[in-house]
Structures are given as C-alpha cells and as structure tokens.
Amino acid sequence: MVLSIQDLNVKFTLRGQTLHAIRGISLDVHQGESLAIVGESGSGKSVLVKCTMGLLDANGYIDSGKILYKDADLAKNRTDKDWQSIRGREIAMVFQDPMTSLNPLKTIGKQIREAVELHQGLKGQAAYQTVLEVLSDVGIDDPQRRYKQYPHEFSGGMRQRVVIAIAVACRPKILICDEPTTALDVTIQAQILELIKKMQQKYDLTTIYITHDLGVVANVADRIAVMYAGDIVEIGTCDEVFYDPRHPYTWALLSSLPQLGVKNEPLYSIQGTPPNLFREVKGDAFAPRNPKALKIDFVRRPPYFSVSPTHKARTWLLDPRAPKVAPPEHIRTLREKGGLGNG
Amino acid sequence: MADNRKKLVEVKDLSVTFGSRRHPFKAVDGVSFHIYEGETFGLVGESGSGKTTIGRAIIRIHPTSGGQVLFDGKQINGRISKALDREVTQRIQMIFQDPMSSLNERAKVDYIVSEGLYAPGHHLTQEARQEKVSKALADVGLLPEFASRFPHEFSGGQRQRIGIARALIMEPDFIIADEPISALDVSIRAQVLNLMSDLQKKRNLTYLFIAHDLSVVRFICDRIAVIHKGKIVELAESEELFAHPLHPYTQALLSAIPMPDPKAERNKTLLVYDPGCHGYSETNRPAWRDVVPGHFVLASEEEFARYQKNY
Ligand SMILES: Nc1ncnc2c1ncn2[C@@H]1O[C@H](COP(=O)(O)OP(=O)(O)OP(=O)(O)O)[C@@H](O)[C@H]1O
Ligand SMILES: Nc1ncnc2c1ncn2[C@@H]1O[C@H](COP(=O)(O)OP(=O)(O)OP(=O)(O)O)[C@@H](O)[C@H]1O
Ligand SMILES: [Mg+2]
Ligand SMILES: [Mg+2]
Known about the structure:
The complex is a heterodimer.
Chain A lengths: L2 E12 L2 E13 L4 E6 L5 H7 L8 E10 L2 E2 L6 H5 L6 E4 L13 H13 L3 H14 L5 H5 L8 H14 L4 E5 L7 H17 L3 E5 L3 H7 L2 E6 L2 E7 H6 L4 H8 L49 E4 L2 E3 L15 H9 L6
Parallel strand pairs in A: 3-8, 3-9, 6-7, 7-8
Antiparallel strand pairs in A: 1-2, 1-4, 4-5, 9-10, 10-12, 11-12
Helix pairs in contact in A: 3-4, 3-6, 4-6, 6-7
Chain B lengths: L6 E13 L4 E13 L3 E6 L5 H8 L7 E6 L2 E2 L6 H10 E4 L13 H6 L11 H14 L16 H13 L5 E5 L7 H18 L2 E5 L3 H7 L2 E6 L2 E7 H6 L4 H8 L6 H5 L20 E6 L2 E5 L1 H10 L1
Parallel strand pairs in B: 3-8, 3-9, 6-7, 7-8
Antiparallel strand pairs in B: 1-2, 1-4, 4-5, 9-10, 10-12, 11-12
Helix pairs in contact in B: 4-5
One magnesium ion (MG) binds next to helix 1 of chain A.
C-alpha cells in the first residue's frame, strides 16, 4: 500500500455556509496499481486528489481524517513548506488543460530542465542530456530543436505530453491524472494512455486517473472507485465494476452510455439532481433518484458490503435481508454487446 | 436524401489565417460544407486541426481570410450591416470549449447566464429575467441556488453547464457547440444531449457539434465531417461513415475509439495514420469526390478507384 486515506472529511466555507464535499472517504491505493476514479460531476473527485497534494482552494479545509503516505499524515500539513517535499517529488499531478501548467514565456526545454535539476539534482550537460531523453521518452521527435521552442509552438497533444514528461521527470511515486485526455482526439489520446502505461512500468509508478470517459477507464484501470455525493459508493477491479456492478448509482451511470442509445430516442439519464451538499445528507445519498430505493435507504446510511475480497459497495441491496433487485437490462446488454461502436 | 431541405448555414471555401504576413499559418484551408435547417452536423478530427477556428469564424470572432459564410442565405463574414449584425448575434450562439477559462470569473452565475439578455432589443423585467435564469439552470441540471455563486466555486462539469445555459437562454436558431459535454459525467452528458434533441424537435434548432467523443457524435449527429490539418478529408451521414470509413485518417480515428468494455479494450488494434502514405504531388493531387451520393472523400484518382473497388 502506498497511500491510505482514512475517514476523510473535507468542507468548504462559502459566505457563512458550509459545504461538505468529501463525506468520510477511506481508500487504500496499492503500489504500482492504476486506479480510476469515476462518478457524478461535482461528487468530489478533484477535491479528493487535491487533498493529497495540499492544493485545496483557500476556503476549503480537511475537517477530519488521515492521509497516510510513508510515515507521515499529510492531513496535518499546513504550510507550503510542509508540502514541498511531497508535491512533484512524491506525488505529481497532470491537469486537464496543459496550458495551465506550462509557462508560456519559457521554452519547453527550460521548463523540463528545472524539474530535472530540482528533483534529480543534475546540472550542466547531464541535465541537458536528461531533458533530451525525457522528450524522446514521451515520443517527441527532434528533441534538440524542440528544446528551444515555446509552448505555443506545440500542438495541444504535444503540450500534454510535455506536462506528463515534466511530471515524470520529478520521479514521483504517484502520478495523478485529472481528465488527462478529454481535450485530445482519440488517436492522440490512445498514444498518451500508452505513454503513461509505459512510464508506469519503467518507473514503477502508481497512477490515479480521474475521467468521465468509461472507455478510457476500461483501457487503463486495474481498479475502479465510483463516487457519488462526496463518497465512494462502489470499488472493485475493472472487470467487477463493468461486468458485475452492484450499486444502483453504478447501474445508472453505465446505463447512460451513448453506446447503449438508440438513435432518435432519448438516452437513459438519471432523474433528479444530486443532493445539495450544504445540507446534511440522510441515508443513502442516491436514494431520492433511485426509483427502486428501499425504505431504509432514506433513513440510514448503508455500510459497505463485500461482494468479493476486492469488491465492495455501499448499498442496502447487498444486505442479506434485502429483497432481490436485478440490475437493469442495459447492464446485461453492455456485457453482451461489447465491441460496439467500431463499426 | 431529398435536397429540397433548406441550407441554414453554408460555408464555402473558407480559410482562416493566423500569424504575421511574413509567417502566415493557415489554420483552416479551403473548407466547404453546409448545414441543413434542423440538422445536427458533426465536426471531428485531430486536436489542432481547426475545428474551433471554424466555429469561431462562423460566429465572427475570427476574421476570415478567404471564402464565404452564409447564414439563412445572407453573407455574414466580412462587413455586414448593423441590423444583420444584431440579428445574427441573437440567432447564432456558441457554447465554448474550455469551461475553465471561458466564464467571467468576477461575475456571478446569474449575470453570466443572462448577460445576452441585457443587449439592446431585450426589455425584460427583473422577475422575467430571473425566471429565465432559473429555467435555464434547471434545464441543464443545476440548482436555482447556484445563481448567486461565482464560477470558481464549481466543479468542471458544473461550469460547462453554466456555459450551455448561457447559450440556451438566448433562444437561438443555430448553436455552435464546441465540446459541450467533454467535462460532464455520462449521465449529465445524456441529459444535455436529450435536452439538445428536445429543443431541436420543438424549435427546429440547428447544431454544429464539435467533439472528440465519437460515440456521442455517432449518436447525436445526422452527418459528420472529418477534418485533418485544416482540411476536411471525409464527409458522410453518420451511420454511413461508421459503416464505410474510407480515408485512412478516418479509419485510424475510428479504430482508436475507447470502448466502455475492458475485454474489448484489451483486444483492440489501433490503426496509425501516416499523412505521407498518399504520395500526393503536383501531378497527383487529391480532390473532393463522392463514392456514393452524399459520401465525400478527399482522394487522388488512383486512391478513389481503390476506395470504390473496396467499398
Ligand atoms: N472553492 C470551492 N468553494 C466551494 N465549493 C467548492 C469549491 N471547489 C469545489 N467545490 C464544490 O465541491 C464539490 C466537489 O467538487 P469537485 O471539483 O471535486 O468535483 P468533481 O467530482 O471533480 O466534478 P467534475 O467531474 O465536474 O470535475 C462540488 O459540489 C463543488 O461545487
Ligand atoms: N488565436 C490564434 N493565434 C494563432 N494560432 C492559433 C490561434 N487559434 C488557433 N490557432 C492555431 O490554429 C490551429 C487550429 O486550432 P483550433 O483551436 O481551431 O483546433 P481544434 O481543431 O479546435 O483543436 P482541439 O481539438 O485541440 O480543440 C492550431 O494549430 C492552433 O495552434
Ligand atoms: Mg473535477
Ligand atoms: Mg477546439
């Protein structure tokens, strides 16, 4: 285990009100694995990973819980100085928009070089050579020429590769990718995912992906955590979550896939809106939107029930006393129709 | 298909050039297509191939350096009259690609969403305006309370929906939707797509839909144009394109579509497109040709013969 989040609660203060963004999440991240976090927009995916790097907005704070990394509890870090030894060095992050992480006024080479000098302690010719190597590593041809160019002379896909190159040059143990490829076309996306996998093997990285693209998830993930309203409602191996999902929210999510749609008919979508996190959530947060919710769902928050040693879900449906509810037909269709869309 | 349908948008030989006169860079190079009224027209392709630039040229953010853009039969690029300008400003709306940087950070959501309603010609009472804002927010699945918050207080997907509400509130006839759903989870994605089709049915809306997610494009678009480095390389009805992709770039693109199915992903083979594979030269130039009516591909004579044979 490389990172262990324990009963984490994160809140934001907004004009006198409190928003409970992360509601008691526990998550163990294993060494060398590739974990995907999926789920509702606004469910706290970005906030969760930002906590591990001390990047919460100023009005946000960790209310309780632990983030154990090596021998330290990162939840206790306060100042930028506390974080210095972690950010980039131990845990690095790739954001959706590469332009927000690159400096438009500095050459690409210089930016990578700074990371190499700072984190690998190299200087002069050695640093320069390493930068060239890093550029080739991420598939950028003619590195000598590219070294001298500025970000705007690179295409979107190349810039994203540079951001990954910088992140990897810091030799982190954990690489977090928040929507790393949404802005890219599928061919470049495929290249970047391959690249991250290659880096993962070469440097024994642990990766955490956040993405809405379940196709990407199917491609990269060893395990999947499904989030809803500040909580992980289901977690399991990639196959378990795709082929044997148990939480009604996971069912609903998979049912909304456009691959399951019929042209000129509405796509399946979840009724209602997610809970207002300014108010205390009672019971199962998904219950009001779940047409088959049980009475208890509105009263008591479900605990996790294990489906297998690697698979668990927070739903009363898994309680031995619960009535048997079969997953919707869509889910079975997904399992049977695999391979859709490639014409 | 019947060709008596009305062409709402016509783009003819459009070029957009950036850079200085000494070092010009043609981001869009001789692009032509038209969009029928009530149709959803998809634009897909490499990042950096000029999709956003085409959208921004149509809505007149970027000046064109060649060609014509017609809307409802009238030319709208270049110099146009005040009256036409005002008309077009209301009738064409754009949903911008980057939800992180396209919203005014200092304004509250309420103002951001209803900004267009303050333009001349809209005389609304405060209540009427507020009601429209609540309705527009609800349409995209946001709570009415959100109206009094600032953009930075939202997640990526929530911000993207604010951008959509902002376009819908103007009740336009034509919407250029540039990656309108990329930051949304699949359920809200479905909700927004359903909303878009609904509005289309009710108000006969027309869309230019730009996206990287080809499964969505296939689902929502009537016709699709594939663009590579500023040039359209293939154009066809959606199902036709997916059934018979001809251009090697289209084939590479379709082979890379990620499937929400771990087994399919493990067994997938990617095709790689090499732009050098065509062997085009001064004497061997590609041209626009139709393989079957309505299915166009950019090909040399020899390539075209091969495409026809293998069709
Ligand atoms: N600075 C902030 N102030 C107040 N609320 C915030 C702030 N940042 C995030 N939130 C709220 O915290 C919740 C979780 O946000 P987060 O960005 O983690 O969502 P997400 O799961 O990453 O969503 P998306 O998929 O749309 O990116 C949301 O309800 C959001 O509105
Ligand atoms: N304002 C500008 N000044 C100079 N070059 C520009 C400008 N806007 C776009 N470009 C260039 O024009 C080309 C096309 O860009 P555009 O944003 O239209 O691509 P796109 O197809 O929308 O890509 P993506 O899928 O990544 O959004 C790119 O090479 C880009 O670098
Ligand atoms: Mg996010
Ligand atoms: Mg674009």
